[in-house]
Design a protein that fits this description.
Length: about 130
Amino acid sequence: MTQHVNLVVLLLCLGLMCPVVTGIFMDKLASRKLCADDDCVYTISLARAEEDYNAPDCRFISIKKGQLIYVYSKLVKEKDSGEFWAGSVYGEQYEDHMGTVGYFPSSLVSEQHVYQEANKTVPTTDIDFFCE
């Protein structure tokens, strides 16, 4: 009985130290993206939403007209696909969503300030389209 209890406690402790990540890999929107650097971590530009956009699934972010968005990458358009950029919302009034990176249609925003040129072509990976 004591060995059984010890085993249960051990398994519980291991579960707490190694949490399980759950999520799903969604379909890729493109096979390549344009970035300012090889790791796509530097901000390319600051854009302003010209229209509202409701995210259709977890790969995307919802944006509101007038909202500022930091742009980190621009997907390279492929046949029969839309042109999407990846970014995160900016501003105190959007605190709940700051730091959440997702895709949005580039046609719905206007670039306000370009920080760095997006001149690095980088392949997309499955993790670019992973949803928790």
